[in-house]
Amino acid sequence: MEHIIKNGFVYCPQNGVDGEKMDICIKDGKIVEQVSSDANVIDASGQIVMPGGIDPHTHIAGAKVNVGRMYRPEDSKRDVEAGQSGGRAGSGFSVPSTFMTGQRYAQMGYTTAMEAAMPPLLARHTHEEFHDTPIIDHAAYPLFGNNWFVMEYLKDGDIDGCAAYASWLLKATKGYTIKIVNPGGTEAWAWGGNVHGIHDPTPYFDIESFDIIRGLAEVNEMLGLPHAIHLHCNDLGHPGNFETTLASFDVPKGIKANPQTGSRDAVLYATHVQFHSYGGTSWRDVVSEAPTVADYINKNDHIVFDVGQVTLDETTTMTADGPMEFDLHSLNGLKWANCDVELETGSGLVPFIYAARAPVPALQWAVGMELFLLTKDAAKVCLTTDSPNAGPFTRYPRVISWLMSNKARKDLIDGELHKWAQRKSTIATIDREYSFLEIAQITRSTPAKVLGLSDTKGHLGVGADADVAIYNFNPETQDPSADYRTLESAMQHAAYVFKDGQIVVKDGAVTNPTLRGRSYWVDTSVDETIYNEVVANVEKTFKQFYSVNFANYPVQDEYLPHSAPIKGVMQ
Amino acid sequence: MITLTPKEQPEVPLEIDTITPDALAGKTLDEIKNIPIWHGNGQVPLIDFFEVEGEAGATAAETKILIDGDVSQTKRIGQGMTAGEITVKGSVNNYVGAEMEGGLITVEGDAKGWAGQNMKGGELEILGDAGDYVGASYRGDWRGMSGGKITIHGNAKSEIAEYMNGGKLIVKGDVSIMPGIHMNNGVLIIEGNVIARAGGEMAGGTIVIKGIIDEFLAGFEYLGVEKDIEVEGEVIPGAFYKFKGDYAIKGASGIIYAAVAGNAHIAP
After folding, report:
1. Does residue A29 lie in a domain region?
2. CA A292 to CA A417: how far, in whole Å?
3. Judged by CB atoms within 8 Å, which residues 140-159 of B form the interface with A?
4. pLDDT digits (tens, 9 = 90+) for B133-143
5. ipTM score assigned to the predicted complex
6. How many CB atoms lie within 10 A of CB B48?
């Protein structure tokens, strides 16, 4: 099937297209130079055309997401929808059901979303949920930062062994990248504690966060992985944590990026930095240190980050950072779920109400906005809400309206937002407004590049996957700054969305809910002798400590009917 | 007044949250007959299961609905109503008066579970017995009934006033276990007996029990005997043991008054 999207205002940062009127041709699921006269014509005049959106960090599939669904029936009740175009019905405001997750991403013009925390032992469950998440391409990030094998190899200084283990684990779990959450801290939580800062050794393994981050960053580049190490720093959500954050950012500096696919040049991807940019010593004297953190990012090129913008909603927090969730539960008293995943990681969940009228959420909102607005280069920042932690992904259009409209921010700041936002941050003094091109960067080209997917994703050049979003907003006649509410609703319900050349959304409604996206994972090859030694060691440890058999651990190919392996190679 | 006469009560229950004074106000009889109601997983017009007669008022407050018969297979009667009146001549199923914000519902028979769930205002009166979770919160929610008044003239079952946050719930008869569990505010008055675990994990609010408590929880501090207690401006005559707790919850300040008569076994 051929399509031609005519006369839209095209925004494609990777190819330097900034709102020019041009036609986009689609054939056999790809963007092509031209199509025949039989092509289906989509008239996009007066509308915005962008590549499909890419979410580099979200929580949409797997065990803890499902606990969120199970233990918050009141969240399910809040948002219920009937099936669209023969698709499945769904429910859940902050933790939508799988079907609704895929559909709602598609409705916003997003065509790729990455599950940011997969306990390796529970990989099969994660892939099962992907199977029921329609439309979007996806991948999952297995957790490495508190893994016993990783800590032992790195403690012994055996980088080759650690790399071989990482190669095996990525294959066994069909995982995409090296995810590190509160390195050493979640293991310490299994002993009832936490670690603070990057030089606080974890119990028993006696290894510092510094060594875990540095070692895994080296492993990442040895394996030639498409994405950089994906780091959730220590001390999340604690006043005064910005020093730990900046120290962590410095750890992988100097390592050379070595992706075997794509064109990534950063060696560190830091996630939900909003939660890591606080000054002060307690919740009483807390202040925003976002300007300091943004300054570091402006001066350093080895890092790309996402914000984790607070959306001022009632939501569900969920993370592999187990001790942090206990702290949060102690703070707000709401129901807490906790889980330990043997030898690998842990997790926790707590509902959270980011009330605009409350001081801390108002400040957190301001910190996120400062990070967006003070980071000069949109090639370094990705739009996320760490969904659903700082707010559900369905609020991305609202975040975009805040970024594009100083008036939207002012209306909020002068309205119900608690005065802490002004008193403890610089947000009220910043009048920068994002352009549509910059929005396309932080939601398309920047995540595509840092994920190593920029050959086929995040742009509309010839050869790219035909993932295209068309929004009913005219940049020539409409002003996103003045008319930010119209902008939000245009971005919430795209006029058209194409996924791999097929129309999946029309007039904001899902038209093709049975389509399934591809499952990306990384298939690396390493030195065979080391690999075999490592696998033998892993097998021995399984017999001693794991509750499952070694042979039953790896995710079978059958779990990925739309498998899309990306090759890496050991240097 | 609109009179709904049930034709038959199907085995698969009906849900009629679309039939409130708010929804009927200003509508013609024909429009009302065709309002969709849920029957299982499908919708049918009201007229399929009810004869409809009379006339609706211009506003919700001026609209009265009489359900003239037994509707024990009908759920969500008066759900979310803000004004007006509903009278049911028989028994009802689950969720009568759930999320109601104002007006009056009178059930002359019995009610099943979740009567007055997450109620915000208005008055719900059940002349017979009620099931579990009267005046409780929606499953999973920690914000339950916040206002209004529920009166059960008969008995009620377990976990009534769960996560209650405000308003008043009176049970004239006996209740089963865990009345006022997780209660945070409001008043629960039980005139009959309680089997066990009254006020479990309550953090605030007041429970008055005039009957006998078989088993009392250990997490309460005994504060002595009070006579003719005053609860939110109303004097309740008699002598009561006063307890504070449940100290299973940090900083809890819930109060339980238990009648001295018959409860010597729970006093220290």
Report:
1. yes
2. 23
3. 140-142
4. 999 999 999 99
5. 0.90
6. 16
